[in-house]
TrEMBL record:
Keywords, sorted A to Z: Membrane, Transmembrane, Transmembrane helix
Residue stretches making up the Major facilitator superfamily (MFS) profile domain: 39-426
UniProt cross-references to InterPro entries, sorted A to Z: MFS, MFS_dom, MFS_trans_sf, Sugar_transporter_CS
Location of this chain's protein in the cell: Cell membrane
Membrane topology: Multi-pass membrane protein
Transmembrane spans: 76-96, 103-124, 164-187, 193-211, 242-264, 284-301, 313-331, 337-364, 402-422
Protein name: MFS family permease
Any single Pfam family the record assigns to this protein: MFS_1
Organism: Streptomyces pseudovenezuelae
Record-linked PANTHER family: CARBOXYLIC ACID TRANSPORTER PROTEIN HOMOLOG
PROSITE patterns with a match to the protein in the record: MFS, SUGAR_TRANSPORT_2
Length: 431
């Protein structure tokens, strides 16, 4: 079958009248129907718990470094290994989603990241923890791409940006839960035990899998395509002439955005505690502003990606995110109140840029290879973007964590340039 996008998808304008009507606040949710809403709940829960399991490491980084006697470069390697291996897991999950179905692939990813997050809590040394964290990345890499495709195929073109933005907002929910648990655990347990408890709580996703197995199903049109297609789940298909340009530039876009994001997600907790001298409770308070900004950013970005278009939304927030990083990293000593105030717009902007990703990447690929294309480009970007937090780790000893955070701004510049090679897809139906 042909993998060339339909001519309509190559224009920058949506179909006449497609996105001009006023909608109720929850029309996007009602439009999903009962099966679609269950799919939304499964993807939302899976991504929230994915976020929770991911943040068990950054929040425990200072305690881990002290326990195992690690320098900044070694702690930065935790994130790099997680993200690099997640690229493999994400690409494989996309193929599995195209071949056996979205829901089955989603459950596999959730089980994988949960099992190895718990295993991290039993690690006797640095090397073992590094291996377990890498294996956790196999599941972590695939969950978002598969869940986003599952929901995108239930969504109408008119509401897809808002719907997928709402799914992505669950990342902030999981982040907030992790910050709350971190504050409680590290307040009542010694650091040597607290980091292990954090990882052990990563068993929570098992409950979600039990529910999903009985209640969540693939969209009927995706099932029909999977049964009929001879090219489903093919890596070669996304590198054929009709999709090669899309694959290259979508991977570059993902690299820039995730390089910027994971620089912040990995190093802000350490920056607050080590460079700014905040206590555990103080760090949790500052993170509350950052996370609340992130949650509202996902929802706002989802709305704007439907109103402005996928590309304009990403351009806007790439610029604003870069500005926020530079401002955040250059706050003078003693101005921790300003640090608190800037945490909200920083979280808002670096999350709003992600809101269009679920709809944009889903719309760039045809159904038969949608999982493969989205899984490959998003997670290749995650792997290459992992260079950014590692660079910060190796420069932190000489530049300070705050100074090294400027590398995140470079990532957003790369993302903005990559958009010149991609079409606007607002209004595209997923056949």
């Amino acid at each position: 079958m042909s993998t060339t996008p339909p001519p309509q998808a190559l224009t920058d304008d949506p179909p006449a009248g497609e996105l001009t009507e006023q909608d109720g606040a929850l029309d996007w949710l009602r439009a999903l129907g009962p099966r679609g809403r269950r799919a939304f709940a499964g993807a939302f829960g899976g991504y929230a718990l994915d976020s929770y399991d991911y943040f068990t490491l950054p929040l425990s980084m200072v305690a881990l470094a002290a326990y195992f006697g690690l320098d900044s470069g070694q702690t930065g390697l935790f994130t790099t290994v997680t993200l690099v291996v997640s690229a493999v897991g994400g690409a494989l999950a996309g193929v599995v989603a195209d071949r056996v179905g979205r829901v089955k692939a989603l459950m596999i990813t959730v089980i994988t990241y949960a099992v190895f997050t718990v295993a991290c809590g039993f690690a006797p040394n640095y090397e073992t923890l590094l291996v377990f964290r890498a294996l956790q990345g196999l599941g972590f890499g695939g969950e978002w791409a598969v869940g986003a495709i599952l929901v995108a195929e239930y969504s109408s073109a008119k509401h897809r940006g808002r719907t997928l933005g709402a799914v992505q907002s669950s990342w902030a929910v999981g982040w907030a839960l992790a910050a709350i648990v971190y504050t409680l655990v590290f307040s009542f347990a010694g650091d040597d035990l607290a980091w292990r408890i954090m990882f052990w709580t990563g068993a929570l996703p098992a409950l979600l899998v039990i529910w999903m197995r009985r209640r969540v199903h693939d969209a009927p049109q995706a099932v029909a395509v999977r049964e009929q297609s001879t090219e489903k789940g093919s890596f070669t298909a996304i590198f054929k002439p009709g999709l090669l340009r899309t694959t290259i530039f979508a991977g570059l876009l993902s690299t820039g955005v995730q390089g910027g994001y994971y620089t912040l997600a990995t190093w802000v907790p350490t920056y607050l505690k080590s460079d700014r001298g905040l206590s555990v409770v103080g760090t949790g308070g500052y993170l509350a502003f950052l996370i609340s900004g992130a949650f509202l950013g996902y929802l706002t970005g989802g709305y704007l990606t439907d109103r402005l278009g996928r590309k304009r939304n990403i351009w806007l927030f790439a610029l604003l995110s870069a500005i926020c990083i530079l401002a955040y990293a250059n706050i003078p000593d003693g101005a921790n109140g300003l640090l608190l105030v800037l945490g909200f717009p920083l979280g808002f902007c670096m999350s709003a840029i992600f809101s269009g990703f679920g709809s944009f990447l889903s719309e760039l690929y045809p159904t038969a290879v949608r999982g493969t294309g989205q899984g490959f480009t998003y997670n290749t970007g995650r792997a290459v973007g992992a260079v950014f937090p590692t660079t910060v780790g190796f420069l932190a000893d000489s530049w300070g964590v705050g100074g090294a955070l400027v590398f995140g701004a470079i990532g957003y510049g790369i993302a903005a340039l990559a958009l010149f090679g991609l079409p606007e897809t607002r209004g595209r139906e997923l056949a």
